[in-house]
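## retry 2 of 3
previous attempt timed out at serialization; input unchanged, resubmitting
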Amino acid sequence: MRPGQSAKTQQLSPQAIGVKEILTGDLFPNPHNPRLLFDKDPLNILEESINRVGILVPLTVYREKRSGRFIILDGQRRWIVAQNLKLKTVPVNEVAEPSLVQNIVTMFQIHKLRADWELMPTALKLEVLMSELKERNDKKLATLTGLDKAVVSRCKKLLDYSRKYQAMMLDPDPNARVKADFFIELYAVRNDRFVRSLKWYDRNEFTDRMLDRYNKRKGLKAVTDFRTIKQHIANARQANREKEIGERLREFVEDEELGIEHLVIRAADVGAQVRKLEGEVTGLSKALREMDVGSYYGEETLWKELEDLLRLIARRLEEAGRRVRL
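## retry succeeded, writing output
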């Protein structure tokens, strides 16, 4: 067992064999790579680097017993570039063949979630992992994969969509590809319990209408507009105006000329409360920025209240589906 590694983690890590050079043509992509999309522009940048200095970091590979092939665990982009540059050999670090679970977990642990990864391919591999391990808890999956808990939650929302919509997020053309953020933000409205109870409501038809609106920029200018829609629905329900908001939502879905403001029920509007709260938050932020910490060092009650406030803010942000970045 390597230092700092638990027994469970050790069981999910393939054993190292050694570093060597192998023929570029003897390598094959990993069918369980959570990353399926390799856009041209980032590859061009990597190609310039490798053409100038070579492959500095060996690829991680294993030999598949069934076929005898070398399969890539880490470094598929480097391998693609090596083929483009017609490099005869590439440096590799060989490890023992992993199990299915080891394979997927290792891919996640090696890559974490890089900035240019698309979420949908990641979600599909997370789906396999959940099935194999019979595990759906976000926190446990985050610990296992090394992904942020919020990322795990976002991936699971994408798995709620049919293959038709998932395919839109997997389009090899980045200009035609629908961003995962659209479906993640739509999820809160699409799966709202009240919305789903409406007799006229059909999830797929609703999704198609929202996609069409967003592509045309008809009443939807940003994916975060779905948060506003969700808020208007919640406000109306709190004011016991469910019948009215249900009818307004139907009209909004059917008539693309109607904007989000059509969903505003004045009696249920919380805009004044929001503006009041924003002012209070701004005032507190200003006071904290200007605070001389040393002068308040011994004020235990104050620090306790601020700690409680920090935890409360984190909870509210999580409840609102906002990713907490500290």
